[in-house]
Amino acid sequence: MSKRKTKSTKLKCHAPDAEVVFLAGTFNDWQMDATPMTTDGKGNWNSELNLPPGRYEYKFVVDGQWCCEPNCQTSDECPKCVPNDFGTMNRFVDVV
Hints:
Layout: E1 7-14, E2 21-25, E3 35-36, E4 38-39, E5 44-51, E6 54-62, E7 65-67, E8 81-83, E9 89-95
Antiparallel strand pairs: 1-5, 2-3, 2-6, 4-5, 6-7, 6-9, 8-9
């Protein structure tokens, strides 16, 4: 059996007023507390995942509130977002 190769993928969120930020997406079955992000103390939150090639959709969970990106509501404001089945937006990342 061959292993699928993974690639280190960094995801970032700018939420200067947040106490805690998590990632939820297709890579963790949308579990809102499975993937915590770390802060640099200046409002930037980061996470690094090892993902096989493909497209992944995700959201940030900022202090318990789901969002595509803080202060981003439409695809015009957030070019890395796509509409989802719930009438809101998801971010996406393509891993090659």
